[in-house]
Each structure stands twice: as C-alpha cells, then as structure tokens.
Amino acid sequence: MSAPAGAPAGAPAGATSGAPASETSGVAAGGAVERVLRLGLPKGSLQDATVSLFKQAGFSISISSRGYFPAIDDDEIECMLIRPQEASRYVEHGLIDLAVTGFDWILGRDVVEVAELEYSKQLRRPVRWVVAVPADSPIRSVADLEGKRIATEAVELTERFLEENGVTAEVEYSWGATEVKPPYLADAIVELTETGSSLRANGLRIVHEVLRSTTRLIANRDAMADPWKRGRIEDLALLLRASLAARGKAGLMLNVHESNLAAVEDVLPSLKSPTISRLQTEGWLAVNTIVDEAEVRLLIPRLKAAGAEDIVEFPLSKVVE
C-alpha cells in the first residue's frame, strides 16, 4: 500500500491520522480563500527540542505516536512532520510554506532563510559534520581520503567537500549506524556530531571538520511574496528568536534607596542599563534588569550587601531585542 497523498516521502501507509482536511483544498465553505500556513517540523533527533522551543514561543504542539500531522493551537497553521533532509526540497517546490531544518540541508536550495535559530538536540551551539576514522587509521588528513570508501548520510555535502579539496573517493549512502562501519565497511565516515562523545565511544577520531550547521527557519519564495503569509512567518520568527534569546537569562527586580543606587549599579551587569523608576516612598527606587541565569547566585548576596532590598528573581520566556 502506498503512502497517502500529502504524506511526507517515506511516510508509512495509514499515516493520514490527524491530517488536516484543508490539505486538499485552498477554499473554505462559502468560497472564501483559506488563510493557512503549512509548517514542516523536523522529525527525528531535533523534534523534541523544536516542540519545546515552539512551546516557549507560545505555541502548543501535540504529536501522536504514529501521526505525521501534529496538532497546534493556532487555526491558521497546519503542521507536518518531515525529515530535515527533505524539508528544503518541499519548501523550494511550494509543497509547504516554511520549515525548520538545518543549514546543512538547505545548501543549493532556492529558499528564503528567515531566521537562524541556534539550538540543537542537546546544546545551544552549532553541530558539526566531520570526517572521522578509526583511532589507529593511517588517514591523517583530507588528502589521505584519496581512493577510500566513505560512508555518510550527507552524500551531496561530502561529494562537494571532496571536490573542493581535489580528492576522489567512493561515497556511499549510510542508512544508519554510520559510526560502526569503519574499518570493515568503510575507511572513513562523514558524520554529524554535537560533542564528539559518540564518535569517541565508537573508537573514532576526527580528522577534519566539513561544515558547521545551525538550525534555520526557511520559507518558500512565493509564500514570502504573499503579504499575509509573510506577516505570519515574520511574527513566528520574532517569537522563536525571542524565546532563544531568553534562554540562560533571568530577570531581577529590587528596591534600593537612592543613596545606595550607585553601589547596586556597580554590581549589576545588564543587557543594557537597568530600568530604574521611583517608588511612592520618598528616596526609594525600583530597579529591573536582565542578567545571565548562572550569575544570579553570585549577584544576590552582593546586591544585598550593596543595600538592595526586596530582591526578586523571575524567569524569562522571551526577550525581544
């Protein structure tokens, strides 16, 4: 049985569970044109981190165990789970309006990069595609890959990298478990890593970094030419960026007598200058600021010693810069 119309490539038969009815029609009852934004969410390792980011941005997404069409609490957005490797192709051809995917998967695609979103499965930093070989391999440089067999999921990226370096090698697609293929099934691999720990655990060492990649929000060019869709996409990008900017930050508010204000300001780091307002009590001021969350445990005792009172720490969900 083939996958249903509208399901992502590779989706199993029966994956229509939860599919929005409007996928087959752009016209609502009464002949009015529907305003729907079709959003591709990454299926796989980035899925949970993306759902968490959208939650922080104000969108609740619910994914069933076998469904490919997550529910979202916004009637103007329809979601579909898509492998990041395929998302840019679907966006380029207008099958979906926008998607969350990696920079590594949009190279050579005619799409609009709306926002760089610096997050990954575990950490808020770029992931890396690297050439890795067994620890005892004689391969020490890119030139040593000449004539070798390389296993990778990123075939086009690897072939482009080898061509740029004047190296001819056999590149084969890896369907999974790439790290266990050297030395018996491949001489080297090109693999994605965040920390390198999985490579080390499999007895591999990194020879060269091929590419650094961060998560991107991309959009179809025609969608960005539509005023309504462009507005929704830009608003979404703003909220996602603001949510990421708030991570690792905390808000502090406190009261201080004006005679101690200079001492308190000397203690406080800030994104900009702290916000200061007068209280009704003569001579007293309220101070609000944003600081690195990791510094709060050091700042509070110092602020108290500098004359601050009624110190309150509060979490931040978004910081719009």
What does this protein structure show overall?
The relative contact order is 0.12. The strands form four sheets. The chain has a five-stranded mixed beta sheet, sandwiched between helices. A five-stranded mixed beta sheet has the order 9-8-10-7-11. The protein folds into three domains: 21-123 and 215-246, Periplasmic binding protein-like II (D-Maltodextrin-Binding Protein, domain 2); 127-213, Periplasmic binding protein-like II (D-Maltodextrin-Binding Protein, domain 2, 3-Layer(aba) Sandwich); 249-315, Alpha-Beta Plaits. The longest helix has 20 residues, at 227-246. By secondary structure, it is of the alpha/beta class. It contains eight helices and 16 strands. Helix 3 (155-164) links the parallel strand 8 (149-152) and strand 9 (170-173).
Question: What is the compact description of this entry?
Answer:
By secondary structure, this protein is an alpha/beta fold.
